[in-house]
Amino acid sequence: MMATYLLCARCATSAIRSGFRSVKPRSFSSSPRSFKSADARAISEAFLNKFSKGQTFVRKQLLDANQLRLFSLTLDRPHLWSSSKSSPTKTLEDEEPLAGTPIPPYYHLIYFTPAQLPGVLGLDGTDASFNPDAPFTRRMWAGGSCHWSGADPHTSTQSLLRVGDTATEITKVLSCEPKVIGKTGEDMLVVRVEKEFRNSQDELCVLDRRNWVFRTALDPAQPASTVPKPTELSQAQLDEAAKGKILQEYNRNEAMLFRFSALTFNAHRIHYDKPWATEVEGHRNVVVHGPMNLIAMLDLWRDAQAGRKAGVSRDGVFYPEKIEYRATSPVYAGEAYRVMMNEGAVSQMEAEVKVVSNDGTACMKGIVTDWSSTP
Predict the structure, then answer these.
(1) Looking at the predicted structure, is the pLDDT value of residue 9 above 90?
(2) Among 141, 216, 249, 263, fewest CB within 10 Å belongs to which?
(3) What are the annotated GO cellular component locations (predicted)?
């Protein structure tokens, strides 16, 4: 999967916290700042000339049952959908999901993974499928949105990605903008990419828009200073923050991150190479994949929906209309954190879901929009 990490680099976190602004019109000053901005603008224009002239990149793939099975088990979910909990004797450990089983929200991440030879990968292990030219080669997935266009419950037939079907992915570049990090004055490029996922009947099932930040490459010969670990909240403070919330606690380990990387074919070294993560990129441990937390937010929402609508005959299959999300801080292996939403939000059209570390840092925020109760 194309760079399946969501704003994981230490400096990307700084960029989001400090905010960024558009590059001003070209200055003719001789200052280094002006030349750097001009370079960023020129590289942005070259990128758009290469990718954004209406081209689309099309791939087809069988939605394999075993890949989905292994992915769900990696996430410690023995059932794809909550309805399966009524039959505890059969789990994904015992058998693959049946042909025709709907693929849960954002589990399509495991399909259409990168198809590149090792020599094409970046020094940090990331694929270079939609990268601007050097020096802007360090890609971080900063956020985006996903619409389950074919999951409208009011239609007679839903258009869903299903196990055993042959789906099509259509990718195109939407934009590339030079930006400046307000606090540091550093240039970066923000690239927006759109992916359509269609079933074998050419029906649109999922519209996935991803915002990538490209910053200048790091020099492995220059050791990075490690981010210190903040003090965790006391149990009393954690209990207070949990009042009125639906939540799920996590503490991911290195084995889970390795399996997630393998299934998404993501070779970004910050997720499994601790010396690279700590000494080159300045993290205090290997980094939890951002999409793992995005999926955890969606899983929390649909589990809550299944519990609330237990009497509704939908076989436990619940899709939102869309999610809009933004990553704000890394999550590290071996550190506890929680995914939470307000109890009352589950019955509302819009529900805010957050990923919050046990030191109180908000690491990811999302707004999940439900389908209206009436057509």
Answers:
(1) no
(2) 249
(3) mitochondrion
What pLDDT, on the 0 to 100 scale, is given for residue 33? Answer: 38
Say if 4 falls within a structural domain: no
Report the C-alpha gap between 366 and 345 in whole angstroms.
13
Query: How high is the pLDDT of residue 36?
Result: 58
Dist CA 148 CA 205 (whole Å):
6
Q: How many helices (H) and strands (E) does the chain have?
A: 7, 11
On whether residue 352 sits in a domain, the answer given is yes
Q: Would 219 be classed as within a structural domain?
A: yes
Cα 7 from Cα 326, distance rounded (Å):
9
- Indicate left, alpha or beta for 212 from its phi (over 0: left) and psi (-120 to 50: alpha): beta
Would you give the end-to-end CA distance of the chain in angstroms? 35
The residue among 327, 330, 362, 334 whose CA lies nearest residue 252 is 334
As a whole number of angstroms, the distance between CA 286 and CA 268 comes to: 11
> What pTM did the predictor assign?
0.87
Residues 6+ apart with CB under 8 A from 3: 126, 127, 139, 140, 141, 212, 266, 268
- Mean pLDDT calculated for residue range 338-366: 96
C-alpha count within 13 angstroms, C-beta hemisphere, residue 357: 19
Residue 264 has pLDDT above 70, yes or no: yes
The rounded mean pLDDT for the chain is 86
Are residues 269 and 218 in contact, defined by beta-carbon separation less than 8 angstroms? no
CATH number at residue 231: 3.10.129.10
Q: Say how far apart CA 303 and CA 320 lie, in whole Å.
A: 12
Structural domain span for residue 107: 40-369
Burial of 241: CB neighbours in 10 Å, binned 0-12, 13-18, 19+: middle
Residues 255-280, mean pLDDT to the nearest whole number = 96
